[in-house]
Structure formats: C-alpha cells, structure tokens
C-alpha cells in the first residue's frame, strides 16, 4: 500500500457531563471540609464502609447510621506510579494506596506522600504493608476527595 | 437445553492493521464464513464483542460494527466483555431459537489511547479517578499483596513473561514476538512498582470470530465440533477497597463452570488452559483460583514447569495476553485458541498431547472485578 492509502485521521472527542453526587457523597465531602472522615454503618452486617454508601452493596439494605472514623489507619497495599497517562492530573511519581482506617471495614483508596518520593528504593524501605499512616489535610478545601491532601507515615 | 458447538474459528494477527476498523472486521468474518461454507444469509444470529466508546472513539459503535460482521437484516446483540458475547451466542442456540450464531469480537488498539488512560475511566470521577487509579495501578496493588502474603518472588512472576513471550514465537497471530529473559523483565522499567513494563500486556489490534452451531448443524458443518460443556461467571464489588484482592470471584466462576462440566479435579481433567493475564503475576493468582494449584502455590507452579508448552498442563500456549492484548476481544481469543487446541489445529503452538478438555478464561475490570470461565470438550 502507498503512504496515501495509510492515511489516518486524528480526532479528539470532548463532551461535557454533569453527574449528580447524591446526598451521601455530598455529606461525606461536606464533612471532609470540616476535616472529618465519615463512614456509614450497615444495620444488618455491622460493617462500616468508607467512603460511605447510601446502601450496603452486600445486604442491599439502606445504610442509615453515620459514623466518624479515625484519620489514622493501616496500609493494606500501595503502588508507586511512575507512568504518566492521558487525563491524569497527579504529578508522577506518586503513591496510590489502600488504607484501612481505624473503625472501618473497607479499604479507603487515596495517596501516600509527605516523604521523599524521588528515590524509589528508599520509598520501598519507607513504606511497608501494615504501616500506620495519618491523613494530612489540604489548606484550601473544595469539598472533594482531595480535601485530604494525602496520608503520611506516622513516625 | 440443546448442546452447542464451536465449529469454526478465524482470527486476525494482533499487529497493527492499516485497514479501517470496518474493513478489518469484514476480512475475518468473510474468512470464517468461507471456511464454514456458509453464506451471510444462512447465519441465524450475530453477537458482537466490542467496547465502542473508549476503544473505538465511536458512540454506539456496534451500529458501525454490524456491516463488517455481516449482521444486516439479522437479530443480534453486543457485550463489551467478549466472553459474555460468547455465552449470549451459546444461549441462543441452547434455547432452540437459532441453529447458528456468529460471535465476533473486535478492536483496533493501535487507534486509541493507552490502556492506562482508558481504564482510568472505569473509575468514577469523584473518587477513584482523582486518586490516580487505573487497571495497572490496581493490578500493582494486587501484586504487592500477592508477593507479601504468599512469599511469591518477583522472579517467579517474571517467569510467566518468559514463558508466554516464548510461546508467542510459535503463534503466527501473536502481536509481540520477542524472546525475553528473567533479567530483561526484572530490569525493565518499574512503571507501577512492583509491576515492571515487561510484566504488563501490550495494546493490540484484533478481530476474532467463532461460529457456533446446534448439534445437528455442527455435525454437518465440521468433522471436529468443539462442545461447550461448562460456563460460569461472577462479579465482585466495584470499589477495590471493598474486596480482598487476592480472593475475588474467579473461584466462584470456576466452581460454576466445573459443576456444569462435571469436573471435580481440574488439575487432572483439564488438558490445556488459555488464561487472561494482562499482568504476569495474574496468571499465577488465577491458576490458584482455578484450582490448577493450591492457594499460595502459584510461584511453585511456574517453577515446576507444569504450565510450560510441554508441561502436564500448558497454560497460554498461544502466548496469552502478555503477547497479544486486543482488550475487549481478548476473552474470545482465549476461547478460540482453546477450541483450536481441541481441534488439533493450533499449528506450531499445538500442545504435544491429546487435548480433550480445554479451559478458557476472561477477565475485565480493576483487579479482576469480573471473571468468566469456559470449559470446552472434544
Ligand atoms: Zn450490610
């Protein structure tokens, strides 16, 4: 085939969306503005889920009871992301982590920072599964998940 | 329920095609109908496997896909996960509604953004996306737990890449054909530590078609029908933090498939397996969940050589997803490859043993949120 037959068309699709958060996410984010991390407790299975849900996905019952959980927890797992990808606004390298906050029964996904991330080998020495981490708050709150700036190792 | 057989298979190479998506789709569907000696008009029903919006840049692309599949004037449907397309096709024959169904999965991975960008959009825009998740990031989190909980080594995970990339050298349809060493894998860039570049699958083009028929029709269409004998699928929670990443729904999906197929000892009964392993360690973890080895023994499994091309239970003789990753079509590729092994038509990567029962597996979503297991028999 000639080069002309290999011709490609470049395209980019941008379309706007407006997604309702619903009352449970709204209240969760409003509480983040006040530096409180809230979960919801299921009456049936007694699990506390963070982020909170309007219903327990296992029991399929309304979750009505709000509970404040600890701002500290244990690292269940983490990844050192050193790969840029389209539409990703976080600057690499960064650590995404799953954290079991004290008083909750699910893994909360956020970032670990507040340590030197430039040297990967040092990061591996510094962050271990089971380590305790604590929430660090953004100074300017926008009522979203990044009102928690990141989690930092305790000690 | 009526029995259903795979009668014919056609697949494209995973290498970038210069054809347009519609022409690329048409070529493979034309090929399978020619192989079966069927005219387009004679096919009962069409099911597509395509994830249009992000993987084609077209909204409702199955509307676009229909011409190339030959679906004009026919009843049809579509699923994004191509293993689901397969079972939807099978059910239309089992139910007695159709005698033939053409199932086709398609994508041109070369035309759309990186999988990491596309899979980041699995996440919701107010929680999982802003904290940086995508399929690779969750897989890496899953891998770290796997290494820690069971003492699996990174070298053992790297061996999966060495095996599958090695097998791919013998598969004319494989995308990436380059032998790699454990050292190559270990030295490749740590893009999502503990995941390294060579442990992550590429992004491939791919059209794969499978012709299904009722027992009566199958026997007329081919001398080597491959029977569907078992199927199971199961879904886990959406949010990875709600699950145990090392104990997902594959065990449930496998149990359902084995029960239907009457398999009590999968390690003995299954002759060959095509397992969807977008990340190297997942082949080991999935093998545990499929009962090919016991819990925590995935590292020993790869060390033992049992899953090598010439082992007792070869896994991914085609080279698997680590060699060829046409994302939404990869499940149907596994099914097609498993069928070819039973037919004895896999060519240079045909395993050197009698294949009576083959397993095909597919997965989709963060850390294996969704799993499907298909059992095929001669
Ligand atoms: Zn509950």
Overview features:
heterodimer; A: 155 residues; alpha+beta; 5-stranded antiparallel beta sheet; 2 helices; B: 378 residues; alpha/beta; Peroxisomal Thiolase, Chain A, domain 1; 9-stranded mixed beta sheet; 15 helices; 10 strands; binds zinc ion
**Proportion of residues in helical segments of chain B:** 25-40%
The CATH topology of the domain at 4-113 and 204-221 in chain B turns out to be: Peroxisomal Thiolase, Chain A, domain 1
Residue fraction in strands of chain B: 15-25%
List ligands, each type once: zinc ion
**Distance N terminus to C terminus of chain A?**
63 Å
DSSP helix count of chain B?
15
Shape of chain B: globular
Number of separate domains of chain A: 1
- Alpha carbon gyration radius of chain A: 20 Å
The rounded distance between the terminal residues' Cα atoms of chain B is 19 Å
Q: What is the H level of CATH, i.e. the homologous superfamily of the domain at 4-113 and 204-221 in chain B?
A: Thiolase/Chalcone synthase
Content-based structural category of chain A: alpha+beta
Q: Structural class given helices, strands, pairing of chain B?
A: alpha/beta
Biggest interface goes to: A-B, 41 and 39 residues
CATH class placement of the domain at 4-113 and 204-221 in chain B:
Alpha Beta
Question: Based on the structure given, which CATH architecture of the domain at 4-113 and 204-221 in chain B is correct?
Answer: 3-Layer(aba) Sandwich
Mean pLDDT of chain B: 96
Order of helices and strands of chain B: EHEHHEHEHHHHEEHEHHEHHHHEE
Q: Low-confidence segments of chain B, ≥5 residues, pLDDT <50? A: none
- Which strand order do you get reading across the main beta sheet of chain A? 6-5-4-7-8
């Amino acid at each position: 085939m000639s080069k002309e037959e290999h011709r490609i068309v470049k395209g980019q699709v941008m379309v706007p969306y407006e997604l309702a958060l619903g009352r449970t996410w709204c209240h969760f984010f409003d509480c983040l503005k006040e530096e409180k991390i809230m979960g919801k407790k299921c009456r049936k299975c007694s699990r506390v889920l963070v982020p909170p849900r309007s219903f327990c996905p296992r029991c399929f019952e309304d979750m009505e009871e709000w509970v404040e959980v600890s701002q500290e927890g244990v690292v269940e797992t983490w990844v050192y992301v050193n790969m840029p990808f389209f539409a990703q606004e976080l600057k690499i390298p960064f650590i995404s982590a799953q954290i079991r906050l004290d008083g909750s029964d699910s893994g909360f996904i956020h970032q670990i920072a507040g340590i030197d991330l430039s040297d990967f080998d040092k990061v591996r020495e510094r962050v271990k599964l089971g380590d305790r981490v604590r929430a660090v708050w953004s100074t300017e709150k926008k009522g979203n998940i990044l009102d928690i700036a990141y989690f930092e190792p305790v000690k | 329920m009526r029995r259903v057989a795979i009668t014919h298979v056609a697949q494209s190479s995973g290498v970038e095609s210069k054809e347009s998506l519609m022409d690329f789709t048409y070529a493979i569907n034309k090929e399978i109908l020619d192989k079966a000696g069927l005219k387009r008009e004679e096919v009962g029903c069409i099911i597509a496997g395509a994830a249009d919006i992000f993987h084609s840049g077209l909204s409702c692309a199955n509307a676009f896909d229909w011409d190339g599949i030959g679906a004009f004037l026919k009843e049809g449907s579509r699923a994004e996960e191509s293993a689901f397309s397969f079972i939807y096709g099978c059910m239309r024959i089992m139910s007695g509604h159709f005698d033939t169904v053409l199932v086709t999965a398609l994508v041109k991975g070369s035309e759309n953004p990186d999988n990491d960008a596309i899979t980041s959009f699995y996440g919701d825009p107010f929680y999982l996306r802003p904290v940086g998740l995508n399929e690779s990031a969750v897989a890496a989190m899953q891998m770290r737990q796997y290494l820690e909980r069971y003492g699996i080594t990174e070298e053992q995970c790297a061996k999966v890449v060495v095996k599958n990339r090695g097998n791919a050298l013998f598969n004319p349809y494989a995308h990436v054909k380059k032998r790699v060493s454990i050292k190559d894998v270990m030295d490749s860039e740590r893009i999502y530590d503990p995941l390294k570049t060579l442990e992550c699958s590429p992004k491939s083009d791919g059209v794969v078609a499978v012709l299904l028929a009722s027992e009566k029709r199958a026997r007329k269409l081919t001398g080597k029908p491959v029977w569907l004998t078992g199927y199971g699928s199961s879904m886990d929670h959406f949010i990875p933090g709600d699950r145990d990443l090392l104990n997902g729904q594959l065990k449930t999906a496998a149990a359902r498939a084995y029960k239907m197929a009457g398999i009590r000892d999968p390690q003995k009964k299954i002759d060959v397996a095509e397992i969807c392993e977008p990340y190297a360690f997942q082949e080991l973890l999935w093998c545990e969940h499929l009962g090919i080895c016991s819990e925590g023994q995935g590292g020993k499994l790869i060390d033992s050589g049992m899953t090598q091309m010439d082992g007792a239970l070869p896994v991914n003789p085609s080279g698997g997803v680590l060699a060829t990753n046409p994302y939404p079509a990869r499940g149907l590729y596994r099914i097609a490859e498993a069928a070819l092994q039973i037919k004895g038509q896999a060519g240079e990567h045909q395993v050197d043993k009698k294949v009576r029962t083959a397993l095909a597996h597919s997965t989709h979503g963060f850390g294996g949120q969704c799993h499907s297991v298909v059992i095929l028999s001669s």
